[in-house]
Amino acid sequence: MEFAFFKGCKIPYFVPQYEVSTRAVCNALGIKLIDVEFNCCGYPVSHLDRSSFLLSAARNLARAAQKGLDILTPCKCCYGTLKKAARLINENTSLREEIKDWLGQESLAYEDGVEVKHILSVLYDDMGVDKIRDRVTRPFSGLNIATHYGCHALRPASLTGFDDPVNPVKFDRLVEVTGAKSVPWGLKLQCCGNPLWEKNKSLSVNLTIKKLENAKKAQAHYLCVSCTYCQIQFDTVQHHIVQEDKVSPLPCILFPQLLGLSLGLNPLELRIDENQISIQRVIEYFSS
Question: Which class does domain 137-285 fall in?
Fold first, then answer.
């Protein structure tokens, strides 16, 4: 399998370990990631300038089409944004013609048919849990994981098509492939609080603390995410919260890090040392 790799803007700067671990896992599973000259997905201006948002997204879709590739992204925000843009463009003939004129200035052409997939979608739907399980060489044992789905992949379900928005299971099944147990917890589908961090920090912190305490009550040893913003909130922002003595830490591990370890990849290759709140002790749960 080959995909155009859309890493987004925030990952390289805020969570570079997400990009590195995603590349390492895909390489181990035979998923080839092709680097393409992409730009921002368009999300930051989606509520400010509709034309700029759509042109930014369309240019990325056109770049992938130029290579004859579908898009794989580890960022759920980019995933939802690109899918939304494609839907709007495909359903509006006049808008599609307008996009065509814009892109023509760069000798690019918008083509319907480029699929946008999240890394979890590729692993679950395209590869399948059975094939991944066959590659696991160091399964975990006794490790409780609280999966956090994030908002952008689940809603609106009619657009993203990621999973059942009320009772999703794909992320849980993928976590269980590693040998870890996905524990049920009441707040797993609620917002992490990151969208409020720069607007209302006290509310953002309160949302995060409630989620952390809820996951702890479920006896989770780690949170697990596959979303740029959720990782920033549960790792970087939680680190600030812990330093202010507002909560005891519940480490957050990126799913490619968790999966990569179970595939036998070197922890350094997955950059587990780069998480703000240490996840080094997760290797103690390897099955003996």
Answer: alpha beta
